[in-house]
Automatic annotation (TrEMBL):
Gene name tied to this protein: rplD
Origin organism lineage: Bacteria, Pseudomonadati, Bacteroidota, Cytophagia, Cytophagales
Function: Forms part of the polypeptide exit tunnel.
InterPro entries the UniProt entry points to: Ribosomal_uL4, Ribosomal_uL4-like, Ribosomal_uL4_dom_sf
Renumbered residue ranges of the record's region Disordered: 46-76
Protein name: Large ribosomal subunit protein uL4
Pfam families in the record: Ribosomal_L4
GO molecular function: rRNA binding; structural constituent of ribosome
KW Ribosomal protein (keyword) present: yes
Family label: Belongs to the universal ribosomal protein uL4 family.
Length: 208
């Protein structure tokens, strides 16, 4: 499919780019999307939770009561999980929630997400732009020109651009990423996808 290249004012530049059908018009695989998003969210978890078990709590080692004649169960340590202040049984320990996925599956998930965006006509290709210094107002003017001021947007750049990134950082509905950092989660979370003109070929090279 062909799509017109827009400038930051939202007007057509007269140029068009071809979005490859094997990336933007595939048969979407919802399960691949689910697994990729699940992995993304799992990798965001710190996994630093920790509870003390009976070997780790600081309590007296004195025997509570005599072994027999009390009518109750035997008790030899206040560290037992049975008592208040004792250790926890099988408590959480620090661990990683991450898991592995095949590269082909992750690529399929991103292609599926891009296909959904293309079907919804939520993809805009914009010509390269930048700022001499970080300017949130300047980035807002770009979004305003593209009629995306109050929508969640994801801008995909071919490489890191510090000024553009810093200009968007304070905006809750705007996110800037690069082709190499493009994730299925970010694609689905955004209402509209802005692709820099130079990023189109890099996306195709990455996912083919």
């Amino acid at each position: 499919m062909e799509i017109a290249v827009l400038n930051i004012s939202g007007k057509e530049t007269g140029r068009k780019v071809l979005l490859a059908d094997d990336i933007y018009s595939v048969e979407p695989n919802d399960h691949a999307i689910y697994l990729d998003v699940k992995q993304y969210l799992a990798n965001q978890r710190q996994g630093t939770h920790k509870a003390k078990e009976r070997a780790e709590v600081a309590r007296t080692t004195k025997k509570l009561k005599k072994q027999k004649g009390t009518g109750g169960a035997r008790a030899g340590s206040m560290k037992s999980p049975v008592f208040i202040g004792g250790g926890r049984v099988f408590g959480p320990r620090p661990r990683s929630y991450g898991f592995k996925l095949n590269k082909k599956l992750k690529a399929l998930a991103r292609k599926s997400a891009l296909t959904y965006k293309a079907k919804d006509n939520s993809i805009l290709v914009v010509e390269a732009f930048g700022f001499e210094t970080p300017s949130t107002k300047g980035y807002l003017n770009v979004l305003d020109g593209l009629s995306l001021l109050n929508k969640k947007t994801l801008l995909v750049l071919p490489e890191n651009n510090a000024n553009v990134y810093l200009s968007s950082r304070n905006l809750p509905k705007a996110k800037v990423t690069t082709v190499n950092e493009l994730s299925t989660y970010d694609l689905l979370h955004a209402d509209n996808l802005l692709i820099s003109e130079q990023s189109v070929e890099k996306i195709e090279a990455l996912l083919k």
